[in-house]
Amino acid sequence: MQKKSDIKKDLIKTVAKQLFSTKGYEGVTMKDVCEACQISRGGLYRYYDSPKEIMCEILTDDKTEMASMLEQAIEGNVPALQLLNYFLEMIRSDIQCKENRFSFVIHEFAFVEPTQSDYMEKRFESAVQILSRLLDYGKRTHEFKDFDTRILATHITLFRDSIITSSASLKFSDTLIDEQLNYIKESVIRHASK
């Protein structure tokens, strides 16, 4: 059973993530979080000292959840192609969703908080490792081609980060997004089908 303090922290993180998504990282203050959570400043500061601390914990939770979901899917023998399609649909959603732009906020956080560069580098490396795990799984099940997993995982992670960042200021057509995501699939899948 979850402790009361963990429940409160989860509420704060959920609400703060929504605030970051709509107002941007720099646009959120501790006062905003207090008001949105309907808790006192003292109540909030019992758990977090700053929006930066909340953001770091949200990012750590997201990374942990993604790795855990992948491990459970692999243990459950979910086809690698199904997992890849899910991953690519997450990218599509991040590009097309103009509200709740949390993926873009992550990049804003990296620019605004240069002292967090080590953390962001570790986060990037973790994303590459998680994607490498998926790609290796697909190679083992013979759903994916034989390729250098680390190079391709790094390339896809860089692609994801750059297209999401660019989508904040550029309008990408559905056709262009489809072409790019299909190109990734064709690079990975043993017998790609459109």
Automatic annotation (TrEMBL):
GO terms for molecular function: DNA binding. Residues 29-48 bind DNA. Transmembrane segments: none annotated. Residues 6-66 form the HTH tetR-type domain. Keywords: DNA-binding, Transcription, Transcription regulation. Pfam families: TetR_C_17, TetR_N. PANTHER family: HTH-TYPE TRANSCRIPTIONAL REGULATOR YJDC, TRANSCRIPTIONAL REGULATORY PROTEIN. This is Transcriptional regulator. It comes from Sphaerochaeta pleomorpha (strain ATCC BAA-1885 / DSM 22778 / Grapes). The lineage of its organism: Bacteria, Pseudomonadati, Spirochaetota, Spirochaetia, Spirochaetales.
